[in-house]
Amino acid sequence: xxxxxxxxxxxxxxxxxxxxxxxxxxxxxxxxxxxxxxxxxxxxxxxxxxxxxxxxxxxxxxxxxxxxxxxxxxxxxxxxxxxxxxxxxxxxxxxxxxxxxxxxxxxxxxxxxxxxxxxxxxxxxxxxxxxxxxxxxxxxxxxxxxxxxxxxxxxxxxxxxxxxxxxxxxxxxxxxxxxxxxxxxxxxxxxxxxxxxxxxxxxxxxxxxxxxxxxxxxxxxxxxxxxxxxxxxxxxxxxxxxxxxxxxxxxxxxxxxxxxxxxxxxxx
DNA sequence: TTCCAGGGATATA
DNA sequence: TATATCCATGGA
Length: 268
What we know:
Blueprint: E1 2-7, H1 13-18, E2 25-27, E3 32-36, E4 39-46, E5 49-54, H2 57-63, H3 70-77, H4 84-89, H5 100-109, H6 115-129, H7 142-145, H8 150-155, H9 162-173, H10 185-193, H11 200-210, H12 221-227, H13 235-246, H14 250-267
Antiparallel strand pairs: 1-5, 2-3, 3-4, 4-5
The protein binds a DNA duplex (13 and 12 nucleotides) through helix 6, helix 11 and helix 12.
């Protein structure tokens, strides 16, 4: 077990883990624990200093995107007046570099679902066929998921998403994601959309959180409500307008807006 | 009890 | 291409 401390004003554990991009973490009294694949990391925060404790520190330094300059990102995006308040509110958010398969499976489960229930379903999935790591379970591998039937997924509460996950697991086994990281943004998105159960919004979440394609601007119900106008009256129009506006910074902008919109609503 | 959730597939025109 | 409808479940 190794420990590393990072001092960075653009790193809030709470904001980064609770902004909706990741579902597998636990909040304790003084710390958070986050799980990724078969690894875990315990984090504590004191002012601008975050301390990470893990058996695989290097993995989590990459996971928390610590090589990226968020001062530059927030400065660039603050030129857009409509983002200033959201950036001020969530400037400690970092876009996690999550495992691709874990992201694909998690966001297929997320469709038309609420975050509390998504977390429970993923937890069931891990305890059902993830490797026992002692005090937690690893995220299941594709091989271990191949054992499950569509009814097994339904028993875990997936509802009508059971068939999507069942077929997606098999598509992945058959190579649906092979070498996708080497594809262009457009081509990668197109390949994701070919998988049954992945539509525009889930594809964009996978692009952003699983492939670190920051040109993606996922439009879910929260983002749509926050952005819709008389002319931007469909999710597709909202996405086109803001990806054009924010370009390679779209994904960051989207997270600030999502976290801000959702926090305000829940607090109320 | 009702509304809604980090939507997508399918049928229809 | 665009719109309408259906889909399971449980959190709030």
